[in-house]
From TrEMBL:
<feature type="domain" description="DUF7827">
    <location>
        <begin position="159"/>
        <end position="265"/>
    </location>
</feature>
<feature type="region of interest" description="Disordered">
    <location>
        <begin position="284"/>
        <end position="310"/>
    </location>
</feature>
<keyword id="KW-0812">Transmembrane</keyword>
<feature type="compositionally biased region" description="Low complexity">
    <location>
        <begin position="288"/>
        <end position="301"/>
    </location>
</feature>
<dbReference type="Pfam" id="PF25162">
    <property type="entry name" value="DUF7827"/>
</dbReference>
<protein>
    <recommendedName>
        <fullName>DUF7827 domain-containing protein</fullName>
    </recommendedName>
</protein>
<keyword id="KW-1133">Transmembrane helix</keyword>
<dbReference type="InterPro" id="IPR057149">
    <property type="entry name" value="DUF7827"/>
</dbReference>
<keyword id="KW-0472">Membrane</keyword>
<feature type="transmembrane region" description="Helical">
    <location>
        <begin position="314"/>
        <end position="336"/>
    </location>
</feature>
Amino acid sequence: MRSRLARPVLALVLVTSVLAPVAIAGPAAAAEDLTVSHEGDRVTVASGPSQAVRGTAAAPVGTEVLVRVRSTGNTSPAFLKTRTGVVRDDGSWAVAFNFSDIDPGGTFELTARFENGSAEATVDGEIVACEGDCADSLPADTPTPIPEQTPTPTATADEEAPVAFGENIFVVNAGSVAALPIEFSGDADAAVVVVGNETDANYELETVVRDEDGDGQAVLYVDTALAGRGGETVSVSGGDTVSVRSETSLSAMLDPAAYDVTLYAGSEGSGAAEDVGTLVVQAQSSETPADADGDAATTATDRPDSDGTGLGSLPTGVLVSGAFVVGGAALAAVLLRG
């Protein structure tokens, strides 16, 4: 089974990072109120764990800084990673990324921005060889984030990509069914979807989805209760087909966690990824989300009725627009479409 690393795509999965006092090392990139520290003309990280990215921010203590790194050029495997830093008393922020699965020589673009979009800094980056113990050690004195900040979605697929996800963050309660909408354009009628990474997440599922009815869209359903346990883990919208190419065997239900989702054009799953996303499986909750009128909201746990060839089209309200992962708990933000 192939092991791929891809990183979520919308900057909506926020992971509280362990931060440290930082020493600014050289010139900083971009916006006046928000900087990324680096030496020379780019950020350099090692092909290893806990690689720190640091900067400064002219913002109140506790302001969250969304940091995204996305592979560029011919870097393989393609990846997108996100972390959230918090502005400290001295005006610094820091986050740490794991680049262990990325070979030296890879390149990326790093973007740091305030959640309200008032400032943004962008700089190129390069991955170099890890020599010895190259991990950065970051203390745990993280300031409390300022509450109720709202992130802005960021698209990941190229506008001319033959296949793309309709959404990039998929949130579901453990034991329920997640819906992954896929859009096809031009002559594209097949796509490979890889969920998870066996090396990093102990689970990986690779499927081939075909737009058999030629309507330019399909919805892949992933049953987190059956994943890896010999059942029918996946199904697809009516008129389309799906086949499982490989899947990790599990002895228990899929653990609550954030799983990479990678999308490839065609049925082979080769070449560069066209889009990436994140499947957030959150621990079951006894509470039912409600909309503004107090009515129970539809979530990704609802599964359409089958018409004999699939599961029908995605019902109103099941597309999830984002999630916040804070202190280990994931809270879903559901986008209702009337």
